[in-house]
């Protein structure tokens, strides 16, 4: 009876301490998001480690500096920005002298901007805006032959949103607006229409001058009279 009780206590102790032992023997890893939008930020979590380096990758604008995680101080946590070039990249970090790696994919650039409305009355208001966190911010005010003056982004908002407005000219027709990314060659193009009948561009034909016809039988010199 005593032997059976001793065995039961030993088994209970083993079951009770097994999760703790497993946690202490957790294999260190490097975790990052699998995909991230072009030009956006990405997080990194490495460990558990006593010492760790920054996270490096050709897909990052620069190394991600790690600091102890608030949820698990044994792990390093950090945030960095990915490159503007789409593709799949390998990231690595040194954890207690051991190299940990993982992969992430930078998605193709999406220029997130809008132009509203698509149809406007002559002299009406045109609004445009976007999100600078998509990896593309405007190189300057938007210009168009249909704008009375350049459209400047004068309003900001949460999550990097921006917007502005201008007036349309009074000449009906369809006009183009180009959103050029700053510091990169990509651009977005949208069109809008000013309501009404566009002016005709037909040039009237040029009339040829009529030839001068000289009357027949006209005297060449003098008045044609004779002496008395």
Keywords, please?
mainly beta, Immunoglobulin-like, 4-stranded antiparallel sheet, elongated
The rounded distance between the terminal residues' Cα atoms is: 178 Å
Strand order of the largest sheet: 1-3-5-4
- Radius of gyration, in Å, reads 38 Å
How many alpha or pi helices?
A: 1
CATH class of the largest domain: Mainly Beta
Question: Going by CATH, what is the homologous superfamily of the largest domain?
Answer: Immunoglobulins
Major β-sheet profile: 4 strands, antiparallel
List the domain count as a whole number. 2
* CATH fold group of the largest domain: Immunoglobulin-like
Instruction: Classify the secondary structure makeup into a structural class.
Output: mainly beta
Helix content: 10-25%
In the predicted model, the low-confidence regions spanning at least 5 consecutive residues are: 13-23
Order of helices and strands: HEEEEEEEEEEEEEE
Instruction: Give me the CATH architecture of the largest domain, please.
Output: Sandwich
Query: Could you say which overall geometry the principal axes of the C-alpha atoms support?
Result: elongated
Provide the β-strand percentage band: 35-45%
The overall average pLDDT, rounded, is 83
Spell out the blueprint of helices and strands:
Elements: H1 2-24, E1 29-32, E2 35-36, E3 41-47, E4 67-68, E5 76-81, E6 87-95, E7 98-106, E8 113-116, E9 119-120, E10 125-131, E11 152-156, E12 161-167, E13 173-180, E14 187-194
Parallel strand pairs: 2-7, 9-14
Antiparallel strand pairs: 1-3, 3-5, 4-5, 6-7, 8-10, 10-12, 11-12, 13-14
């Amino acid at each position: 009876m005593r032997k059976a009780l001793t065995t039961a206590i030993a088994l209970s102790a083993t079951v009770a301490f097994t999760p703790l032992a497993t946690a202490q023997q957790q294999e260190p890893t490097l975790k990052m998001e699998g995909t991230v939008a072009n030009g956006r930020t990405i997080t990194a979590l490495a460990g558990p480690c006593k010492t760790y380096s920054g996270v490096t990758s050709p897909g990052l604008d620069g190394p991600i500096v790690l600091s102890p995680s608030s949820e698990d101080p044994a792990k390093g946590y950090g945030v960095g920005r990915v490159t503007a070039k789409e593709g799949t990249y390998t990231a690595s970090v040194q954890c207690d002298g051991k190299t940990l790696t993982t992969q992430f994919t930078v998605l193709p650039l999406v220029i997130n901007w809008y132009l509203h409305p698509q149809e406007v009355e002559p002299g009406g208001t045109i609004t445009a805006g976007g999100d600078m966190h998509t990896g593309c911010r405007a190189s300057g005010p938007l210009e168009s032959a249909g704008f009375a003056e350049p459209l400047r982004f004068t309003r900001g908002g949460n999550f990097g949103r921006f917007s502005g407005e201008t007036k349309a000219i009074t000449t009906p027709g369809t006009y183009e607006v180009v959103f050029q990314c700053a510091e990169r060659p990509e651009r977005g193009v949208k069109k809008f229409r000013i309501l009404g009948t566009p002016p005709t561009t037909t040039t009237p034909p040029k009339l040829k001058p009529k030839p001068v016809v000289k009357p027949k039988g006209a005297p060449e010199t003098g008045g044609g009279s004779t002496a008395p």
